[in-house]
Amino acid sequence: MVGIWQQSPSICQKPNGNGLNLNLNVEFRLPVCRSESSVEREELESRWQGVGKTTLITRVYETLKLSNPNLKLQGFYTQEIRQGGERLGFEVVTLDGRRARLACTTIPSPEAHRWPIVGKYKVDVASFESMALPELKIKQDTNLFIIDEVGKMELFSSSFFPSVLNVLQSNIPLLATVPVPKSGKDIPAVARLKNHPGATIVTLDQSNRDSMKEQIISQLLDILPKS
Q1: 11, 38, 151, 164 — which has fewest CB within 10 A?
Q2: Which tens digit of pLDDT belongs to each residue from 149-183?
Q3: pTM for this prediction
Q4: Carries keyword Cell membrane (predicted)?
Q5: Is 32 in a helix, a strand, or coil?
Q6: Is residue 91 part of a domain?
């Protein structure tokens, strides 16, 4: 799902060519409206398996940087750790290429038996926090935050979701991903994001991800500084 949040939906302008009104038939959230005091927020939701959400996120990032190399973008994305065709876990990668372990099936650490488990993966909260949390610090010159993703593994960090909320309360746009709900039920933190005023929910899948990329880029270019 992709979405945009704003602080004051009651005083938003009517949707127009520069407005951010989209109603897509996919689990994507896009902006509903804008105002001088509103905060645009974008969030993308898709499943880990097969949809290519991380590829989409990285392509959006690369396109934005090409369009304006002076843009200040902060954040991270998650990437699979694979060996011999087998998925061994996930790592978090900052936008400037630094990496840290998020979760793994086997971790050579005496502390690993204490770590939270999601499926067959043990979540290395300390490693995740060391890389992700500094990327979510509010800076005056930041133009866009990118978070892939706000999911169950990341939420084992007690500091992560408050950092996400701080971003939402800033005047800086956010492009983020969240997991598709299992059995129709969202993680409470994810539900809180999805229920934020001004959000429109749609779904990303293999058939629409390319067109969605163009939609997201177009919307972000409308609200980000020009080169």
Answers
A1: 11
A2: 999 999 999 999 999 999 988 878 889 888 888 77
A3: 0.79
A4: no
A5: coil
A6: no
Q: What would the mean pLDDT of 199-219 be, rounded to a whole number? A: 78
> CATH number, domain at 36?
3.40.50.300
For residue 178, what are the CA distances in angstroms to 38, 46, 117, 183? 22, 7, 19, 15
Give DSSP secondary structure letters for 122-139: EE-HHHHHHHHHHHTS--
With respect to residue 120, please indicate whether it lies within any of the assigned structural domains: no
Tell me 194's DSSP state: H
168: Cα separation from own chain's centroid: 12
**Are the beta carbons of 2 and 44 closer than 8 angstroms?**
yes
Q: Give the alpha-carbon dihedral of 119, 184, 174, 151, to 10 degrees.
A: -10
- Of the candidates 114, 116, 185, 177, the one whose C-alpha atom is nearest the C-alpha of residue 149 is 177
Q: Which residue has the tokens 């997201």?
A: 216
**pLDDT surpasses 90 at 92:** yes
Number of domains in the chain: 1
For residues 205 and 5, the answer to whether their CB atoms sit within 8 Å is no
Residue 163, token pair as written in the block? 């950092």
Asked if residue 40 has pLDDT above 50, the reply is: no
Determine the structural domain holding residue 153 and report its residue range: 9-79+139-223
